[in-house]
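Chapter summary example: a protein plus benzoic acid.
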Amino acid sequence: MPEIHWDSKLYNEQHRFVSDYGADVLQWLDAKAGENILDVGCGTGDLAAKIQEAGAKVLGVDASADMIELAKQNYPTIYFEQKDAAALDYNREFDAVFSNATFHWIENQRGLLRGIYKALKHGGRLIAEFGGKGNVKSITDAIDQAAKELGLEHKVISSFWFFPSIAHYANLLESSGFETEQMWLFDRPTKLTGEDGMLKWINQFAQHAFVNLNEEETKSVSELAVSILKPAHFKNGDWIADYKRLRIKAIKK
Ligand code: BEZ
């Protein structure tokens, strides 16, 4: 997957819902005072802060230097490190590993799960939520259709995320040594605020699609995709994106 540039300011201002929704996943984590918890893909650190509020000791890691810098500014009492999620090098240090809205960005899933398995103490838990099968399909379909209408389909790459089914991910977890305790795949329609909400989402999250296009082509494809999406996804001044989440709880055996 090409490298993504994370605009932490845009993320913080327009896409805060990522960590707001993550608060729900924290219920599955159920962090206890005194536990050691690793937050993989911590972004701007908001959920790491909530874990710390429960009395646990948290280490937040993220591949983006920009995100880590903002996390450190936001939460100076929490330890954050820039690290690739597929190259974790911790050894039986954590009672739990937590992750929200990150796994779908990781190409090397076996490397990711190997590192998490090694980082956990025996009996430790992995709680994660990310995009599941069918996630944002309307958006990727609209990008494909726009690219086709503009004769640019051979240059646009719309499927670069990993959105697995329950069966696929259970298999990956179990072949990596985990026991799957709970798994949900569910629709979570997600509001993107403002008339330009969808364009901002595409600019921030789907920038990979356009790596082979120049600025003008990128603008044409993304604006046409937005107009294709508008009749079904723009309601009462806001956009609704068709998010589907895969939420898991797995135990290191
Ligand atoms: C997600 O959280 O599901 C997601 C975010 C950005 C791009 C794709 C998926």
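Key point: The chain has a mean pLDDT of 94.
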